[in-house]
Write a structure and sequence with these properties.
The protein is of the alpha/beta class and about 300 residues long. Helix content is about 35%, strand content about 25%. It has one domain: 3-Layer(aba) Sandwich (UDP-N-acetylmuramoyl-L-alanine:D-glutamate ligase), CATH 3.40.1190. The protein has ten helices and 15 strands. Strands 1, 4, 5, 6, 9, 10, 11, 12, 13, 14 and 15 form an eleven-stranded mixed sheet that branches. The chain is globular and about 50 Å long. The structure holds adenosine-5'-triphosphate (ATP) and 1-O-phosphono-beta-D-fructofuranose. Adenosine-5'-triphosphate binds next to helix 8 and helix 9. This is 1-phosphofructokinase.
Length: about 300
């Protein structure tokens, strides 16, 4: 069974305007809401690939109810721990060809809620897959993902991690099986600059070899991705197209990798599916569909390096 963990979910409130004028009353040309947060997005994309998941994490208040209702309507299983405080709302602003984001403040996770969540993870079994994705609520310590990865690995559960900053640095010490930082997050991780593909490969190799991470996929937006892992070292080009909405492109890449890995057990095919999925989401208003991904697959080229 695949589980996604979103410790800090959100309603994504996506607002489009022709132009944004700070300090003035602005009116949306269009807007919509979606259940968001990185793990939830992975569940939503896998659902579109006909792969079942259960979404875990913390949810609270009327915003939390919106998210659980949304997932229930889509027939996506979920088993969140309930909180009193509201789940956050993240504002995604699209104006004059630019995307800006204001991500909200997380509710507080108290010890009782955290232990209830851990008890759910304790039930998982060898062969299960867990995707841990997104920021940590500020009330949780920065080594939370590290502790969870270590605990799950002891049970023979495959762990996949997509986060950034100190929680990522810490969690790498527990060697999750698959990580997908983007190239900015990779540079931040090593406190250095990433100027070209060679720099990306050098740092990704360090993650694979020194931190013993089986699959490292560094996403690079319109420049595709670089994979370093048990499947070798390769650069994947991104399909060309007009970016409409990049929110969730990275999560779609994670879902695409899992789908490719599960169905083909081949890292090259999985990385290719990841890039096609990320691009299909970038080119559409919301998350990609399987048809959109498969239409783009033949346009992803791979160079072994
Ligand atoms: N403008 C674009 N054109 C083509 N493909 C894109 C574009 N932006 C993103 N992608 C695709 O999506 C994948 C993931 O994108 P990106 O590197 O931006 O991830 P991310 O930073 O984790 O994204 P986000 O946080 O917005 O979800 C890329 O590897 C690429 O395949
Ligand atoms: O604040 P975090 O947890 O880092 O990111 C949250 C978020 O920006 O990530 C998703 C897109 O990847 C959105 O659905 C959501 O709003």
């Amino acid at each position: 069974m695949i589980y996604t963990v979103t410790l800090n979910p959100a309603i994504d409130y996506v607002v489009s305007l022709d132009a944004f004028h700070p300090g003035e009353v602005n009116r949306s040309a269009s807007d919509y809401k979606e259940a968001g947060g990185k793990g939830i997005n992975v569940s939503r994309v896998l659902d579109r690939f006909d792969v079942s998941t259960t979404a875990l994490g913390f949810i609270g208040g009327f915003t939390g109810k919106y998210i659980t209702d949304y997932l229930t309507d889509m027939n996506i299983e979920h088993d969140f721990v309930s909180l009193q405080q509201d789940t956050r709302i993240n504002v995604k602003l699209k104006a004059a060809g630019e995307e800006s984001e204001v991500n909200g403040v997380s509710p507080t996770i108290d010890e009782e809620a955290y232990q209830t969540f851990i008890a759910k993870l304790e039930q998982l079994k060898e062969g299960d897959i867990v995707v841990l994705a997104g920021s940590l609520p500020s009330s949780l310590p920065s080594d939370t993902y590290k502790e969870i990865v270590a605990m799950l690995k002891q049970k023979g559960v495959m762990t996949i991690l997509d986060t950034s900053g100190t929680p990522l640095t810490e969690a790498l010490k527990a060697s999750p099986a698959f990580v997908k930082p983007n190239h900015h997050e990779l540079a931040e991780l090593f406190d250095t600059e990433v100027k070209n593909d060679a720099d990306v490969v050098t740092l990704a190799k360090r993650l694979h070899e020194e931190q013993q991470i089986d699959h490292v996929l560094i996403s690079m937006a319109k420049d595709g991705a670089i994979y370093v892992g048990t499947g070798g070292v390769m650069k994947l080009s991104a399909p060309q197209g007009t970016a409409v909405n990049s929110v969730g492109a990275g999560d779609s890449a994670v879902a695409g990798f899992i789908y490719g890995w599960q169905s083909l057990e081949n890292a090259e095919a999985a990385a290719k599916y990841a890039v096609a999925s990320g691009s299909a989401t970038a080119f559409s208003k919301t998350l990609c569909t399987k048809e959109e991904v498969e239409a783009l697959l033949p346009t992803v080229s791979i160079e072994h390096i």
